[in-house]
Amino acid sequence: MDDVAVRAIEEAHELHAFFAAWFRAGHGPVPDFGRLEAALAGDFRMVTPDGHLQDRATVIGRVRAARAGAPADFRIVIREARPVWRASGVVLLEFVEQQYRGGESTSRRSTALFTDQPGAPNHVVWRHLQETWIGSD
To answer: Is 101 left (phi over 0), alpha (psi -120 to 50) or beta?
Structure first.
């Protein structure tokens, strides 16, 4: 794997660790919210698992408002992360996000577009994210 793919995979793991800590904030230290703001490109867009399109400001607002809304057992695991397309300084990453809360779990398959960005966490920024629910079979 080239460097941008390795950094994007690390970024996917680290940003989801931030989310888990942020959503559990009442059950431990509160992470620096600036970490999220630095990770999302100015033109970031997300398609939610339910098909709703959200821009950067909407995503940041929703995450900020959800602080400490999860129970102490909430966690997120990223698995099966792999690049599906790449070019110089750009990678399209695919991964499965598994969330655990209150003995239940949900899964979504995601594709995320990352580009090189000096000064950003892991020196990449999220440009686009598409999430799709994975049903239980």
So the answer is: beta
> Is the Cβ–Cβ distance between 36 and 120 less than 8 Å?
no
Candidates 119, 44, 124; CA nearest to 89 is: 124
Q: What is the mean pLDDT of each run of 10 residues along the chain (137 residues)?
A: 89 97 82 96 97 98 94 95 97 98 95 97 98 83
Give the chain's length. 137
* Amino acid symbol at 5: A
**CATH fold group of domain 3-134:** Nuclear Transport Factor 2; Chain: A, (3.10.450)
Give CA–CA dist 4/114, Å, rounded: 8
Distance between CA atoms of residues 82 and 91, nearest Å: 10
Q: Is the pTM of this model over 0.90?
A: yes
Which residue ranges make up each domain of the chain? Answer: 3-134
Contact of 107 with 96, CB cutoff 8 Å: yes
Query: 55: exposed, middle or buried (C-beta count within 10 Å: 0-12, 13-18, 19+)?
Result: middle
